[in-house]
């Protein structure tokens, strides 16, 4: 019996040794309760964004002035706004807008920032100087003020707000991956690849980029939460989504005049923003702890 137990222990040890880095990261991620809670919240809102418009009980622009500013009830779960529109249905539709803006803006900024960061970190010299100074200039301004300036130049719209959010997040990804590339390019396998005559483009694509993606994934998850807040802020200021689009920030702006008479018109869109941001932050923290060796116990 003791020999069987020892064999089982050896088998378990061998299986643990052959685990890949992504398997280890997944195992570590599952151990974090906060990360699982955040993932559940994110999945919930993603499902709402996908299926919400199909299950919404009312149309997002169906006005009924006789039912304006009605409190939550069996007919209107989250109440109605100043035009008699169902807030619950508008929040369901707004989830798709907010998540689309957040995901798209972060994807654009991650791709552009990673490209510039890899070029700056790998080639160095005057290329690094120029790109780094551009990053420094963009980071010198508060992000929301820079976004407001960009939208003011391009014109208020949801698409221009998306562009502004993408632009202000490029330096964050660029500087992050640049520092990673500066460390990786000094590794022995990179010098060996250069010694055998491997082209720079192949080194960047096969070796530098795959080994630089971990911090980008973590930063991207956290940046989605920031992008959603920035989109809501621009919408609240009238520089993002325009009426009658049911964007959460725009809904807050439209309801701010009725805070005392109809607080539910602000509470529910605000809760949607808060829960979504908390979900992405918790999931991002869990990914950071799972993927960053320095954070592992």
Automatic annotation (TrEMBL):
Keywords: Cell membrane, Membrane, Transmembrane, Transmembrane helix, Transport
Residues that span the membrane, as ranges: 35-56, 97-122, 134-155, 216-241, 261-284
Listed InterPro entries: BP-dependent_transpt_permease, MetI-like, MetI-like_sf, OppC_N
Stored PROSITE patterns: ABC_TM1
A family per Pfam: OppC_N
Membrane topology qualifier: Multi-pass membrane protein
Family from the record: Belongs to the binding-protein-dependent transport system permease family.
This protein's name: ABC transporter permease
Natural source organism: Solibacillus merdavium
Classification of source organism: Bacteria, Bacillati, Bacillota, Bacilli, Bacillales
């Amino acid at each position: 019996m003791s020999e069987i137990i020892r064999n089982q222990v050896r088998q378990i040890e061998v299986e643990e040794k052959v685990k890949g880095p992504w398997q280890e990261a997944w195992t570590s991620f599952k151990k974090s309760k906060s990360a699982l809670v955040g993932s559940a919240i994110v999945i919930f809102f993603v499902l709402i964004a996908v299926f919400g418009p199909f299950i919404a009980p009312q149309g997002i622009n169906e006005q009924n002035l006789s039912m304006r500013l009605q409190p939550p009830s069996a007919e209107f779960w989250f109440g109605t706004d100043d035009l008699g529109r169902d807030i619950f249905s508008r929040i369901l539709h707004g989830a798709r807008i907010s998540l689309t803006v957040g995901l798209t803006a972060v994807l654009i900024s991650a791709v552009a920032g990673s490209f510039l960061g890899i070029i700056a970190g790998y080639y160095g010299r005057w290329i690094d100087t120029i790109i780094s100074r551009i990053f420094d200039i963009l980071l010198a301004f508060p992000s929301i003020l820079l976004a407001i300036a960009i939208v003011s130049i391009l014109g208020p719209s949801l698409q221009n707000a998306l562009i502004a959010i993408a632009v202000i997040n490029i330096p964050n990804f660029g500087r992050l991956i640049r520092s990673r590339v500066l460390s990786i390019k000094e590794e022995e396998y990179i010098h060996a690849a250069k010694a055998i005559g491997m082209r720079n483009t192949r080194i960047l694509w096969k070796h530098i980029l795959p080994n630089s993606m971990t911090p980008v994934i973590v930063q991207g998850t956290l940046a989605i939460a920031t992008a959603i807040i920035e989109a809501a802020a621009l919408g609240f200021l009238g520089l993002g989504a325009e009426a009658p689009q049911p964007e959460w920030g725009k809904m807050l702006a439209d309801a701010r005049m009725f805070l005392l008479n109809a607080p539910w018109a602000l509470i529910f869109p605000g809760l949607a923003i808060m829960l979504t941001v908390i979900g992405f932050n918790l999931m991002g923290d869990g990914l950071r702890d799972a993927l960053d060796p320095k954070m592992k116990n």
